[in-house]
């Protein structure tokens, strides 16, 4: 069955992970029309490998229509934030997971692209919002996770197209049209795997 395997929150931690496994390796998963799992149908997922060998990501095109302040009233760092909250995935749906741009990598975050990171560490989110505004930030409720080899199998069985990730798609693209736009792009290039995908799914 195509779907996310529940991972513990600790599986996202990277302190102490070998440096060779911490390099940026983010890609975009574009759900094929044949993928009918309601968790992922018509989604675009930003995914990266975590230190324990599986993969973790967030859905980019499912806006909840709620602001961060409305969704997380008990999180002081999010009070007054009018940013829209996105549904990140079926795991830990009440937990804020965030993707942000930073010139320096915090140890509590997973590298996605050269200067883009993913984390669910609440203390890091507090620090980001207490200082100068980060160049880019998007917050999600929950995330998606795959055990080692699981995502590779889903791709092999035709669940996903794989494309290179980029900053504009992560932070600026219109969620309402993102899936169809990237599906057209993926099918026009014969859905060949993006460079680095085997690093993500192994």
Report on this structure:
The protein has 202 residues and is α+β, with helices and mostly antiparallel strands. The chain has one domain (24-174, 193-201): VC0467-like, CATH 3.40.1740.10. The protein is 22% helix and 29% strand. The protein has six helices and ten strands; from the N terminus they run ββββαββββαβαβααα. It has helices at residues 68-71, 122-130, 150-156, 167-171, 175-188, 197-201; strands at 27-31, 44-49, 55-59, 63-67, 84-87, 91-101, 110-113, 116-119, 137-146, 160-164. Strands 1, 2, 3, 4, 5, 6, 7, 8, 9 and 10 form a ten-stranded mixed sheet that branches. The radius of gyration is 16 Å and the shape is globular. Residues 1-21 and 191-199 have low confidence and may be disordered.
In short:
With about 200 residues, the chain is of the alpha+beta class. Helices cover about 20% and strands about 30% of the residues. The N terminus is likely disordered.
How is the topology of this model organized?
Layout (H helix, E strand, L loop, with lengths): L26 E5 L12 E6 L5 E5 L3 E5 H4 L12 E4 L3 E11 L8 E4 L2 E4 L2 H9 L6 E10 L3 H7 L3 E5 L2 H5 L3 H14 L8 H5 L1
Parallel strand pairs: 5-9
Antiparallel strand pairs: 1-2, 1-10, 2-3, 3-9, 4-5, 6-8, 6-9, 7-8
